[in-house]
Amino acid sequence: MSKQPKYRQVADALRREIDNGTYPPGSRLPSESELSARFDASRNTVRSGLGLLVTQGLVTSSQGLGYEVAKHEVFELNASRFEDLSFPQIGDAYSTDVTNAGRRPHQTFRVEIRPAPEEVAARLKVEPGSRTVLRFCHRFVDDVPWSTQATYYPAWLADEAPRLAEPGDIEEGTTRYLAERGTEQVGYFDEISTRMPTPEEARALEVGAGVPVLLWMRTGYTVDRPIRCTITTFRGDLNRVNYEIGDQSGRENEPQ
Amino acid sequence: MSKQPKYRQVADALRREIDNGTYPPGSRLPSESELSARFDASRNTVRSGLGLLVTQGLVTSSQGLGYEVAKHEVFELNASRFEDLSFPQIGDAYSTDVTNAGRRPHQTFRVEIRPAPEEVAARLKVEPGSRTVLRFCHRFVDDVPWSTQATYYPAWLADEAPRLAEPGDIEEGTTRYLAERGTEQVGYFDEISTRMPTPEEARALEVGAGVPVLLWMRTGYTVDRPIRCTITTFRGDLNRVNYEIGDQSGRENEPQ
DNA sequence: TAGTGGTCTAGACCACCTC
DNA sequence: AGGTGGTCTAGACCACTAC
């Protein structure tokens, strides 16, 4: 066991105390100067240690207030059931899910005509930079920024289904609207990845350092071509994505 | 537009230069003292700025060498196809996938009898702390630590299928072995989340600060009960998890 | 040996919150 | 006003890498 630098000792000691309940979620840590005295270290060294905990997402800090132990309430998103048309629903799936969880949803919405970003163009099988309709959603739960969702539709589809490019919500859901016009999504391909937020994402989702984002990209297909690409960016500390695959009867049964 | 602190200006300037190709992936950044002169800032301030880029996973640093712009090669894991028995395969799915990608796989493996962690117990519908068989895998690609995978089996199943608790690989795959003994996995439930690594995970996966982990938890079921829970921890910068759901013919077609 | 990043200190001043 | 964290400096010494 080699000797750890002092700022790591500070971080490790505080992490232990957070884990064992000395500082429960939501509580305040001692101030920098108190910790400085306790660990016989300069304020800067203590700050380095606290900085580690912040970048690990364990605590948050705010000027004038102090350091607070982070709370973790995760919200589950069932991705495999999310847009199954055989589950009839009123309004969009997101509001339904959030309301069922006893939380208060809220979203802002806009529609733009935009050149296709490279990533999206490849998935929609169109030229990079070609015209797409972007329907963009910024979602909140109990007024906390939760996720952003950007769905791109290729120009040819927007011509066939003009309401896609009109501002304002599509009451029955876009998937259903498209299905009614003969463009039925029969399959999709999901890609899930994670990384630290860009400065823009950090602003949109109000995440501090130390909270990664969860990226969920869904490309939807008819029997012969892609019709949409949806990129959802979640706060990683508040969300989990689930898939149910195959027969689920063994999951719902009571333990014997 | 309010004035940014100097260390952010440093980070933003360097981030722009990384994005626009001035410092391509794999290249070295100027040294701290050079940057200190360029930005007319103290070395500590420059270090704060570089620290931001490190915690965002954009650059890595090493003592005596300097700062290097991170490379990103992501490896795709097809989760929906991963254990489908209708795709016959030799050896385990991981080695197959990695070899197909032209990379060199390598893994260490061990089996233990362990009390069920709370998370696992809930999913296996057994008492927390009750006996489980843990089959643990530490996986490398081209000698880079890639992921760890821990699969827990309940005690009752290990009694029925004794090879589960024996050390050493199961040649044909555990899923296939269990199916041959009459315990067929007919469905599974996947949960995907992300967070910053714990110190242990950081050590096992050799990730620096600024790289989140991607957690993939799969619970497998027979028609009437859970039979296993697999927790895979990936380096978030190197992996992506995919799902194919529904009819995929529209994905594989050529663009018209 | 020279140059790099890693750790640590002491002290200054500022911005924000609470009382 | 007094306490909190946020920014910044100047300088010291250590550890690692390259040559």
UniProtKB/TrEMBL annotation, chains A, B:
Residues 14-33 are annotated as: Disordered. The keyword Glycosyltransferase does not apply. CDD domains: WHTH_GntR. Keywords: DNA-binding, Transcription, Transcription regulation. Residues 4-72 form the HTH gntR-type domain. Pfam families: GntR (PF00392), UTRA (PF07702). It comes from the Bacteria. InterPro entries: Bact_HTH_transcr_reg, Chorismate_lyase_/UTRA_dom_sf, Tscrpt_reg_HTH_GntR, UTRA, WH-like_DNA-bd_sf, WH_DNA-bd_sf. SMART domains: HTH_GNTR (SM00345), UTRA (SM00866). PANTHER family: GNTR-FAMILY TRANSCRIPTIONAL REGULATOR, MANNOSYL-D-GLYCERATE TRANSPORT/METABOLISM SYSTEM REPRESSOR MNGR-RELATED. This is GntR family transcriptional regulator. It comes from Streptomyces hazeniae.
